[in-house]
Specification:
6-stranded antiparallel β-sheet; alpha+beta; 104 residues; 5 helices; globular
Length: 104
């Protein structure tokens, strides 16, 4: 499973549609001031049917994503079958619905 930024394939659309959140009050949020871009990535493996998106939260003051949000839009049974009968609910829930991973 290899994910690539939407903007790699469609830069004009990504330039128009990439969303940015601007933090203007650090006391309110606890986050560094500035703009945080939400970069969407999709699976590019033609043999994969993971049906999920990764969204990297990036800020110019950090060397990489400061958070990654994943979202799988199918139900748990779909991901269980897709993963060959995986029984671990924790792993399955990382694919279905939203999940957030933080760290730098």
């Amino acid at each position: 499973m290899s994910h690539t930024a939407f903007g790699e394939f469609f830069p004009e659309i990504a330039n128009r549609e990439t969303r940015v959140v601007t933090i203007i009050d650090q006391a309110l949020t606890g986050l560094p001031l500035g703009a945080y871009a939400l970069i969407d990535l999709y699976c590019t493996d033609p043999d994969c049917d993971c049906r999920n998106v990764y969204i990297h939260v990036v800020h110019k003051g950090f060397s990489g994503p400061i958070a990654t949000i994943t979202y799988g839009w199918k139900n748990l049974s779909y991901y269980k079958e897709w993963m060959g009968g995986e029984e671990d609910d924790y792993i399955l829930r990382q694919f279905k619905g939203p999940e957030i991973f933080t760290g730098n």
